[in-house]
Amino acid sequence: MKLYTFFRSSAAFRVRIALNLKGLTYESIPKAFAKNEHRAPDYLSLNPQGLIPALEDDGVVLSQSLAIIEYLEEKYPSPAFLPTAAVARAQVRSMAQAIACDIHPINNLRILNYLRKQLGQNDDGVNAWYRHWITEGFKGLEQQARAHSASQRFCFGDAVSIADICLVPQVFNARRFDTDLSAFPTLVAISRHLESLPAFAAARPEVQPDAV
Length: 212
Prior knowledge:
Helices cover about 55% and strands about 10% of the residues. With about 210 residues, it is α+β, with helices and mostly antiparallel strands. Strands 2-1-3-4 form a 4-stranded mixed β-sheet, with helices on one face. The mean pLDDT is about 95.
């Protein structure tokens, strides 16, 4: 199993967490964004989307972090990332997608670079954009977590789910961009607990082989 990754990619961060939670061994293959290694022909031949992460398993390359995580959930069902009831599964997916589909895509590196280069925004403008969309997304997610968390240790119930796997990298990014998180005490408490778990701690950007 090979993971094409970049230490600071929040999508790759999610997949690293998932692999660690499942207890799976994998080879980490970094692709440096600064060198556009994720856009090089050899990588595009594996992943035509040219995005990070990609997971190679049994000769097949999968892309998109949520698709990879769901694949791992189906192939390696224990420990489970989704509850058993259909409604609960949908609620967990809703929370995960609030991050992976609403907050993250408009704050990833290629969007920030477009704001700088094509739209002429300075660092203050780009950072304000970043913080705004995290704050907007976290408003609804805070309410969902408050309603569904059993003990402010996990986003849903009292076990790790896909929602938690998505939350920790997004909180990491929020702190990196100095986002005010005081309005989101539930999310902060959940993330603090999750960050203490070995599978999450081992996936952190600063401890990856390609961290600079």
